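Narrative progress, year one. The postdoctoral researcher (J.K.) led the effort to move from monomer predictions toward full complexes, under supervision of the PI. The following entry was the first complex the group processed end to end, covering 350 residues in total.
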Amino acid sequence: MGWKMAHDDQGCPGCEAPDLAFSRHDHGHCQADALGRAEVLIAARGLRMTPVRQRVLEILLETHRAVGAYVVLDRLAAEGFGNQPPVVYRALDFLEEQGLAHRIRRLNAFTACMHPGEAHAPSFLICRSCDLVAEAPAKAVRGALEAVALMVGFTVEGSNIEAMGQCADCRGRAA
Amino acid sequence: MGWKMAHDDQGCPGCEAPDLAFSRHDHGHCQADALGRAEVLIAARGLRMTPVRQRVLEILLETHRAVGAYVVLDRLAAEGFGNQPPVVYRALDFLEEQGLAHRIRRLNAFTACMHPGEAHAPSFLICRSCDLVAEAPAKAVRGALEAVALMVGFTVEGSNIEAMGQCADCRGRAA
DNA sequence: GGTATAGTTGTAATAGTATAACATGGTCAA
DNA sequence: TTGACCATGTTATACTATTACAACTATACC
Ligand SMILES: [Zn+2]
Ligand SMILES: [Zn+2]
Ligand SMILES: [Zn+2]
Ligand SMILES: [Zn+2]
């Protein structure tokens, strides 16, 4: 298993370094790792990684930025897939349900999950200058949110936690 | 100052009880209090609480649910205000900038701030059954988020923290 | 192989959300 | 009263998302 070996041998940059999106890194590793893990996961769940779904995931994995549904759709259409919104929204919904992609509500856009498979309710750091989106560990944040909810008897079933701001590089460049 | 007296005399339900939206309460107090505080705040900042802005705020204050921009717009239009989207979006943007309303990104809708004036980056608990939205204290949550961001040198300038789930009442009713 | 079944994709039509650009009109201070 | 500034009205358009239905494909069972 190539992807697993690479992952174990040197650690998974995407998983271990939440700031990866903001720094120079071997993005080919991010892509190959996430794609490989996605395929294994989907198969293990008895589901099908169809051409459309795979292609959408690949497109999202090309960048650490969030991508709008219609940008993905244009890409799909140019490659001979359907060119109507449901084609891409269905694939995106599937990927999101399977934890392979996330919806960034602040941007009305989607981003590939950089560490699929691990149960997580992630948080996102969005740089307003370079538009990069980093998926950050949200265990503590999510815990705090659930604690607040618990106080009033509210059951948290899902959450979206997004921070807009500026990454270290962009702040340095501005100063 | 009526609003302030009422607020001080018996405490402000909206400010002190994050679950207020989910329980029976004197909603007239929420409305009067928030509206009064809003007017004082805006005046203190040298800004103008115009008829459109005031009316939009009043409409948002009618309920603890989030209200879509076009619902507000229809109300405005029926009352003789302009009937084009910018009319309502400008008012909503103004109210949000002044901390008098919040955008619930998960719902593409807006809700009045129930404790304007206090510096806050709130979190929201959204009940999927009754659609009520409670503004919960997010100091701890926001702190956790900023801690994560700090680790990677990211500066948080704004955040949206929303939890979808079920309130105590609705959960009880379902069981 | 045939055939029922469920799941996936394609397509048309429509609904819902938001902004750009420009014109008009009110407010307030020199 | 003039000018600067802000707010509102209006037109047009862009962007995001869903409903409904038709066609196709893999699969499982006979
Ligand atoms: Zn990873
Ligand atoms: Zn940046
Ligand atoms: Zn209050
Ligand atoms: Zn409820």
